[in-house]
Specification:
The complex is a heterodimer. By secondary structure, chain A is α/β, with parallel strands linked by helices. Chain A is built from 19 helices and 22 strands. Chain A has four domains: 5-31 and 494-544, Alpha-Beta Plaits, CATH 3.30.70.20; 40-122 and 447-484, no CATH class; 132-225 and 363-425, FAD/NAD(P)-binding domain, CATH 3.50.50; 228-359, FAD/NAD(P)-binding domain (3-Layer(bba) Sandwich). In chain A, a hairpin with a 2-residue loop joins strand 17 and strand 18. In chain B, helix 1 (49-64) crosses helix 7 (217-227) and helix 3 packs parallel to helix 5 (137-145). Chain B is globular and about 65 Å long. Classes of the chains: A alpha/beta, B alpha/beta. At the A-B interface, strand 1, helix 17, helix 18 and helix 19 of A face helix 1, strand 2 and helix 9 of B. Bound molecules: flavin-adenine dinucleotide, thiamine diphosphate, iron/sulfur cluster (2 copies) and magnesium ion. Chain B: Residues 75-238 form the Thiamine pyrophosphate enzyme TPP-binding domain. Chain B: It comes from Nocardioides szechwanensis.
Chain lengths: 547, 334
């Protein structure tokens, strides 16, 4: 023994003492569902693409491209989305509680535009399946389905009665909100995948088209094309037209004659588009007539605000009772307890050279005649959870099925239907979607995020907007887009801040190397829960240990 | 002032690291090669703030000195849980002598190193609040007076935790400890007693004095690094919540340190040569009640027979330190 005086044992490290045995709960990394993802009708992994976008040009110079490709895995229209989507993701965004929601939509638009500028493309990796799929309708639902089906290796044919693709994205949404070169660029990518388009061809008998074409499966995405007409007693010379006809006519090159004073009847987005378009076509006065109050208007808040900024006038709590040449008779309404409008018997006269009806759209499903196994209720096609109609192999989505109507919902239907069709063609049960717990605000530790308000998209000057169809909302530039992306708190998912590595009193959190990859060393984790409490993103959970 | 320049990095700014930040802007704790001065297997309680604070301080000091560092430790939890014979958790030269003599031993080690031509090796002395403000007080004051080249760190958990949570000169008014019971008309520790060690250190006009908590890692590491740029006596007072002694959940250790700062109860500042040179302004101020409620040592102030008068007294103390250090000066939240 050559030990010093009074020393009997060799020095040992405390690492021999496996304090993990004290534990009754262990920390585990989780991937929770961010509220934005949960709210996205197109099923985008928003947190995932913001994570990539945050890297910006980044170490490898490809953060934006990775972000764009993450969007493209679910949605082929980032640049369109960034302009027309009503962004329910932002309404759900947890950052709203800290300061202001992340400007998800602006960043998406920046990425979509960047892809167009840089010429990023996608290609089909899957081997050809030899299956032929018919898509009826080249609106967002049909195009999204065609894109996903093509990516899965199917041979896709899209048929549309219109001379150009896009559906309501082209023939409804005005160019000042969605410039046509953007629309064309994003549709071109789908063409480049080898999808066949038969434009200017109306399907009148779906059964026959499927049989004659020898299609293995079909996606029906005919939308709702027919402007609703209300019965209004009208003088013979009164000028009444519907919003979709007006907007479509404009797109086809025939500007409607509206006169100096235009009244628009309805409270939805089509009404806002009709009124704003009327202003651009030279009307001195465009007034929206709606039977309820502003807060009950179905139109998106941003659209109403922009219309007001452009000088569109509003008459709330008003219905039209009579239309004559140059004037309208209107009646004031009152809301009851439940918010339902009732007539008051107080009448008024308004001068108007033209009346545009924007009362919603009906479907034209005459192509389904004779297909009795496909049920139609309230003018829309009945589908099951997989979006399949009563006829095996015939699926439907978008405005033609019972659901909220938007481009984003239509795109989401196209994606879901494409996956369901792929499963159906392979005679395979759909893969169960793993349930992810919602990343609730209470699970975050937002102390760690610096406060920063969101970058407003600059607006074209209102005056200029009224007389042109130039784009109204401008995109973010590179630095502001990056800044905005970095406001994301990465709810429920690790963003690699190393806080867990820092706060563990027992050095039990190891970094494995690549960002975001950590391991909890259970030999030493005492289960104190500090990493969970101090994880900014709520990406760690405590689970009871089996004792 | 002590705020971090935020540039464009809006995520994880206050966290240990961030994949978007250049390595040099991340904390030492986020570095893959941090020294882990006190390694796994120590016997500190679950969620112990003291062991966390010690690793934060010593890893930063190791980095600042290129690993040329010796630590001298007083008796207390930090010593007991790290070195049950023959095991040690320390991954740097470490010396323990007695409860009351750590500042004197640290002074001696610094003198010996200098005398043997190894003056480049730096010395950190460390102790709990008991070892610092009570039994080690005279030795520490001497170390300050002589301006010995030692960074002395007090890990303040506001009591004698190692021996079963007794009162120290750093135990706050109203807090229950084993010998200041929550009974009688003035439950818990008496008000108006105890010692404010950072101010006493400042009164010695030593080169550097700073306070910090385990809740603000960037700030704590920066102060250690700065302290190591000075020679002579330096003092760092770190608030380290103790789940056992405070009766708090082990997961709340950092939260409580943060609330102590946000409520003004624990002012975070720096001083050079006896003058306050910088304060960490309060971001999102909270009432002291938010800090007190999660701790069982204050539970007698709430419960069935609440003592709003005592809470008000604690609040008044916090308000006084907010005014004294100008903790709201840089903040819009008054
Ligand atoms: C004016 C207006 C503005 C809008 N603004 C927005 C907005 O800003 N954001 C938003 O999210 N949503 C908006 N919407 C709603 C959105 O446009 C629709 O919900 C969406 O386009 C529906 O997509 P879809 O593919 O189901 O149908 P559609 O877009 O209507 O496309 C259906 C396609 O099928 C074709 N078709 C129909 N029948 C046949 C047939 N028998 N044979 C061949 N082809 C056929 C049609 O020609 C059309 O091209 C707006 C709607 C309108 C009317
Ligand atoms: C001279 C002497 N008196 C009493 C003790 C018993 N003792 C050991 S640690 C300790 C209290 C330590 O308190 P503190 O310094 O605050 O450290 P903590 O354990 O709280 O971290 C006491 C009283 C001792 N070791 N030596
Ligand atoms: S902060 Fe980011 S992850 Fe969280 S909801 Fe908002 S966009 Fe989604
Ligand atoms: S008693 Fe307090 S200071 Fe001591 S090991 Fe436990 S938590 Fe840490
Ligand atoms: Mg103590």
């Amino acid at each position: 023994m050559d030990k010093p005086f009074a020393i009997t044992l060799d020095v040992g490290t405390s690492r021999a003492n496996k304090t993990g045995s004290w534990r009754t709960e262990r920390a585990v990394y989780v991937e929770r569902q961010p509220p934005c993802n949960q709210a996205c009708p197109a099923g985008e992994n928003i947190q995932g693409w913001l994570y990539a976008a945050e890297e910006g040009p980044g170490a490898d110079g490809r953060g934006y491209e990775r972000a764009w490709r993450t969007i493209m895995a679910d949605n082929p229209f980032p640049a369109i989305m960034g302009r027309v989507c009503y962004h329910p993701c932002e309404t759900a965004c947890n950052r709203e509680i800290v300061d202001e929601a992340v400007g998800i939509n602006s960043v998406e638009r920046f990425l979509g535009d960047e892809a167009i500028r840089q010429g990023w493309t996608v290609s089909v990796e899957a081997p050809p399946t030899g299956k032929r799929v018919l898509v009826v309708g080249a609106g967002p639902a049909g195009l999204s389905a065609a894109y996903h089906l093509a990516m899965l290796g199917h041979d896709v044919t899209v048929v549309d009665s219109a001379p150009l693709t896009g559906g309501m994205m082209r023939f409804g949404i005005p160019a000042y909100r969605l410039p046509r070169d953007v629309l064309d660029a994003e549709v071109q990518r789908i063409r480049d995948l080898g999808v066949h388009f038969h434009l200017g061809a109306t399907v009148t008998d779906l059964d026959e088209t499927i049989r004659d074409g020898g299609y293995d499966a079909t996606f029906l995405a005919v939308g709702a094309q027919v402007g609703k007409r209300a019965y209004l007693p009208a003088g013979s010379v009164s000028h009444v037209l519907d919003a979709v006809t007006m907007l479509r006519g404009l797109e086809e090159g025939e500007a409607p004659m509206l006169g100096r004073r235009v009244a628009v009847y309805g409270g939805g987005n089509a009404a806002m588009d009709a009124a704003r378009t009327a202003r651009r076509l030279g009307a001195d006065e465009a007034v929206v007539i709606y039977r309820r109050t502003r807060d009950r208007m179905p139109a998106h808040e941003g659209e109403v605000r922009e219309a007001q900024e452009e000088g569109v006038l509003f008459r709330w709590l008003t219905t039209i009772t009579q239309v004559d040449e140059g004037s309208l008779t209107v009646e004031r309404m009152e809301l009851d307890q439940s918010g339902f409008p009732h007539p008051t018997g107080e009448f008024d006269t308004l001068s108007a050279d033209a009346l545009v009806l924007a009362l919603g759209q009906d479907t034209d499903l005459s192509l389904l005649e004779g297909m009795d196994d496909i049920a139609v209720r309230d003018g829309v096609v009945t589908v099951d959870h997989e979006l399949m109609t009563g006829r095996p192999g015939v699926f439907a989505g978008g405005d033609a099925v019972p659901h909220e109507r938007s481009v984003t919902v239509a795109v989401g239907h196209g994606r879901r239907a494409a996956r369901a069709i792929d499963d159906w063609l392979a005679d395979r049960a759909p893969e169960p979607v793993p349930h992810r717990e919602l990343a609730d605000f209470a699970m975050l530790n937002t102390w760690y995020y610096e406060d920063a308000p969101h970058q407003q998209r600059s607006m074209l000057e209102a005056v200029r907007r009224q007389s042109t169809f130039d784009e109204v909302v401008l995109g973010l530039d590179e630095t502001t887009a990056l800044y905005e992306a970095r406001r994301c708190m990465s709810c429920g998912n690790c963003f690699s801040c190393d806080n867990c590595v820092g706060v563990c009193p027992d050095n039990a959190v190891r970094r494995l190397g690549p960002p975001g990859e950590y391991l909890i060393d259970l030999d030493y984790c005492k289960g104190c829960g500090l990493c969970v409490a101090e994880c900014p993103a709520g990406a760690i959970a405590m689970v009871p240990e089996e004792i | 002032m002590t705020t971090v320049d935020l540039k464009l990095y809006q995520v994880g700014t206050f966290a240990a690291g961030n994949r978007l930040l250049p390595l040099e802007d991340r904390t030492v704790q986020a570095h893959p090669d941090r020294s882990n001065s006190i390694t796994s297997g120590h016997r500190a309680c679950q969620g112990c703030g003291e062991v966390l604070g010690a690793r934060y301080v010593l890893d930063a000091a190791m980095r600042a000195t290129g690993g040329d560092l010796v630590a001298v430790n007083a008796t207390g939890c930090l010593e007991v849980f790290s070195t049950p014979y023959p095991e040690s958790s320390w991954q740097l030269p470490w010396l323990h002598s007695l409860f009351g003599n750590a500042p004197a031993v640290a002074s001696g080690v610094a003198a010996a190193l200098r005398a043997t031509g190894r003056g480049h090796t730096r010395v950190v002395g460390q102790a709990g609040d008991g070892g610092t403000v009570d039994i080690g007080f005279g030795a520490l004051s001497g170390m300050f007076e002589r301006n010995d080249d030692v960074l002395f760190v007090c890990y303040d958990n506001e009591g004698y935790m190692n021996t079963g949570v007794q009162r120290s000169g750093a135990t706050p008014g109203g807090a229950r400890t084993a010998n200041t019971k929550a009974i009688g008309p003035e439950p818990g520790n008496a008000f108006g007693q105890g010692k404010n060690m950072p101010r006493i250190a400042m009164a010695h006009e030593i080169p550097y004095v700073a306070t910090a908590t385990v809740a603000d890692l960037h700030d704590l590491e920066r102060k250690v690094e700065k302290a190591m740029t000075f020679h002579g006596a330096r003092y760092l007072h770190v608030l380290v919540p103790c789940p056992l002694g405070w009766g708090s959940a082990s997961k709340d250790t950092i939260l409580l340190a943060r609330l102590a700062q946000r409520s003004g109860i624990f002012p975070v500042f720096e001083s050079e040569g006896g003058e306050v040179t910088a304060v960490t302004p309060i971001r999102r101020r909270v009432p002291v009640e938010d800090y007190l409620r999660p701790q069982r040592r204050y539970s007698h102030l709430f419960g069935a027979h609440p003592r709003p008068d005592v809470v008000a007294r604690i609040q008044a103390g916090a308000d006084r330190s907010i005014a004294r250090y100008g903790l709201l000066a840089d903040s819009s939240e008054k």
